[in-house]
Amino acid sequence: MRNLREAFLRSDTVKIGGKSVKVSKITIAQWRELLSVIHALPQLLITVMTAAPEDRLPYFLVAIEKSLTDVVNVVSVLTELDAEWIENNAGVDELVAYFVAVAKANNFGELLKNGQSALNLAKPVTEVTDQGAA
Q: Which residues face 19 on adjacent strands?
């Protein structure tokens, strides 16, 4: 029965602590609010995403440990669920599933790639010329 119910669950929703929550694009207003409630999470996520594939799991586990408060705050902002309720009712697996769904819905992989490209373009260009003896 559970699988049948999950089959009918909308693909843009996930379960957190037994509640269905919608996964959607992060608005500019939400980004601003997110930036005010997160501390360690951005750097830890970048470390995980840029690690070699065989190293991602250990980095991911450390990131979870170091950033649980940030994770709860992010989920609270995006779902409008109370942070304390999330801490007392949600499983880490549900929060990870939510993050994966949000990353897909917001195309984070492409966002990071484009951001990295923009940063590379912003680097000062040092031109090396071969000026042999004349």
A: 16
